[in-house]
Amino acid sequence: MAVDQTSIASSPGTGGGQQSGSPATGGAQQSGLRLLRSRGRARGIAALLGPAFVAAVAYVDPGNFATNFSAGAQFGYTLAWVIVVANVMAMLVQYLSAKTGVATGRDLPELCREHLPRAISVGLWVQAEFIAMATDVAEFVGAAVGLNLLFHVPLLPAGLLTAVVAFGVLAMQQRGYRRFELAISALLGIVFLGFAYDQVAVGANPRGIAAGLVPHFDGSASLLLAVGIIGATVMPHVVYLHSALTKARVHCRDDAERREVLRFQRLDVLVALGFAGLINLSMLFIAASLLSHGGSAHLDTIQAAHAGLGRLVGGGAALAFAVALLASGLSSSSVGTYAGQVVMQGFIGRRIPLFARRGLTMLPALVVLGLGVPITDSLVISQVVLSFGIPFALVPLVLLTRRADIMGALVNRSVTTAVASAVAVVITALNGYLLYSILLA
């Protein structure tokens, strides 16, 4: 599946769909797409997939563990519909981000810097950095908890060990994007297999699932968790990152080839985020089943869920859970650091070494671990914070992808823009209602 980047990558475009260069030279260049397709159907398709699997890791990070298990333990299957809706939203958002890179040869932060007023671009960068810190709390703390559950390593030393392993994963990115994608995809596969095992072991209530797919809430506490689920599912930093992963992936000679590449990116999104959605639903189903089997409401923390699996199902299920949590934290923390680099370079044209960024962004997580802040509570709150950052990524994405002078032939259709705008409005309204509820409490 490895691909020589130098043979398929194109130079950054100039917007308006002009990714492949000038008309005078574009036809003479070898088509990276045709080169990949010439390798055979299976190998050609596999080489075009990958960016969405990197993005999907962020959709099953430890913050999802916290929000989904809390939702299942407190409200049973009630909020299953929120996970489904959030996942559908995520598919649309990530598809638009992937399309931005394919159409323009630019990533979303770069387009914001080029087409929005400088003050707005800088403001978006500042809030994105704060959101990155909240992201890192969830991912870093989750991996440390995974090490603690597996090997009984104290949380603060476990956090430091997590940093060492994350540095190793990041080193793969510097040796080529394909190695990084394969490593992240393998970790995502571990998470999927872990929860597949646990779901089979625990089982689920079909009638409860059917009832949970009907939209409804159960008080203001369920609304808080619903916003947390959306914040953990639609991740602002991978909205920026996905466009960077597709912007120079394959050299295309014309709009027809760009449309063909985009079809594969659509497949990439459907498959990768489909897996992520199944994992998220499995988290909630497992927690709801543990609640019904154990007759205890004290299963709404990661540690309690792990202990409940071991007590009610067996050590194998608890081991699978801990391994999945560790794989999730390690992969998502590496992806988050990579996304932070894309954000800084795109919005303000500056960059710092990835390892220096990793060292800076992990500090808040180490503080959380060192102070002994309740782990699951800190993870849930971090996801609520992330939800407040989503509109700042979605609104520029919708505004820019609806412009033909930027997107060229791949500009959004009117219905796509309308649906994406509705997603942004719904998320913003949920956040506003949540803030209002908190202020009145």
Task: Give a written overview of the molecule.
There is one protein chain. By secondary structure, the protein is mainly α. It has a single domain, classed as Amino acid/polyamine transporter I (Up-down Bundle), CATH 1.20.1740.10. It is 79% helix and 0% strand. It has 22 helices and no strands. The longest helix is centred in the middle third of the chain and has 40 residues, at 255-294.
Approximately how much helix is present in the residues?
over 70%
CATH class annotation: Mainly Alpha
Structural class by helix and strand composition: mainly alpha
Kindly report the average pLDDT value: 85
Rg (CA only)? 21 Å
* E-strand count: 0
Write the layout of secondary structure elements.
Elements: H1 5-8, H2 23-26, H3 32-37, H4 41-48, H5 51-57, H6 62-75, H7 80-104, H8 108-115, H9 118-151, H10 155-173, H11 177-202, H12 206-212, H13 220-233, H14 236-246, H15 255-294, H16 302-312, H17 315-348, H18 354-361, H19 363-371, H20 375-401, H21 404-407, H22 414-440
Helix pairs in contact: 5-11, 5-14, 5-15, 6-13, 6-15, 6-20, 7-13, 7-14, 7-15, 7-20, 8-17, 9-10, 9-17, 9-19, 9-20, 10-11, 10-17, 10-18, 10-19, 11-15, 11-17, 13-20, 13-22, 14-17, 14-20, 15-16, 16-17, 17-18, 20-22
Provide a brief overview of the structure:
The protein is mainly α and 441 residues long.
Index terms:
441 residues; mainly alpha; Amino acid/polyamine transporter I; 22 helices; 79% helix
